[in-house]
């Protein structure tokens, strides 16, 4: 369960972490430096045989990340390259194989397979990117060790809220 959340979180992080160089003709979309607020919504969480309390706990954990503020400097924004980040996979271990990687022109449409700790999941990310807002849906599907297939769908929306706040730590890139 933790691995699947980590993979979905990876997708989410990639979706909000960069809107840099692209692999399609749409050209790069660079986000604006400054403070970004991210909201997360668990749209779907289906795991065969999981008790309702665990589903509620997962929803609470995922949505607990909502409202997170991050500061990105101009230097960090200038270095962003989502295509390169996608190639690295979870934990920068090169554990993802992407069958579709269209990032640019204001959209992201990525799909592939990721493996971590012996589990393999299919992951897809689709949405929009602009200088002041990203809105991406991350879908993760995979086999459950107890049998059956799980599916988790998260929606992440990040919005530029202005300059970084005084004394605020910047996000590591």
Walkthrough of the structure:
This protein is an alpha+beta fold and 173 residues long. It has one domain (2-22, 30-160). The chain is 24% helix and 42% strand. The protein contains four helices and seven strands. It has helices at residues 2-17, 52-63, 74-79, 82-88, and strands spanning 34-46, 68-72, 96-104, 107-116, 119-129, 133-143, 149-162. A seven-stranded antiparallel beta sheet has the order 2-1-7-6-5-4-3. A hairpin with a 2-residue loop joins strand 4 (107-116) and strand 5 (119-129).
Largest sheet: 7 strands, antiparallel
Neighbour order of strands in the largest sheet = 2-1-7-6-5-4-3
**Percentage of residues in helical conformation:** 10-25%
Structural class: alpha+beta
Mean pLDDT: 76
List the total number of helices: 4
- Range of strand content: 35-45%
Shape: globular
Unreliable stretches (pLDDT < 50, length at least 5) are 1-25
**Into how many domains do the coordinates divide?**
1
Per DSSP E runs of 2 or more residues, the count of β-strands stands at 7
Termini distance? 27 Å
**N-to-C order of helices and strands:** HEHEHHEEEEE
**Rg over CA atoms:** 16 Å
């Amino acid at each position: 369960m933790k691995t699947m959340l980590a993979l979905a979180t990876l997708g989410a992080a990639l979706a909000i972490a960069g809107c840099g160089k692209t692999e399609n003709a749409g050209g790069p979309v660079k986000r604006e430096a400054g403070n970004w607020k991210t909201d997360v919504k668990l749209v779907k969480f289906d795991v065969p045989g999981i008790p309702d309390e665990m589903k509620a706990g997962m929803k609470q954990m995922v949505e607990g990340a909502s409202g997170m503020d991050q500061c990105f400097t101009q230097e960090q924004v200038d270095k962003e390259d989502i295509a390169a980040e996608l190639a690295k996979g979870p934990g920068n271990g090169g554990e993802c194989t992407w069958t579709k990687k269209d990032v640019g022109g204001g959209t992201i449409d990525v799909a592939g397979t990721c493996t971590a700790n012996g589990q393999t999941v299919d992951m897809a990310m689709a949405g929009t990117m602009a200088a002041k807002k990203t809105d991406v849906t991350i879908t993760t599907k995979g086999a459950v060790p107890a049998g059956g297939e799980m599916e988790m769908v998260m929606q992440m929306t990040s919005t530029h809220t202005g300059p970084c706040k005084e004394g605020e730590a910047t996000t590591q890139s």
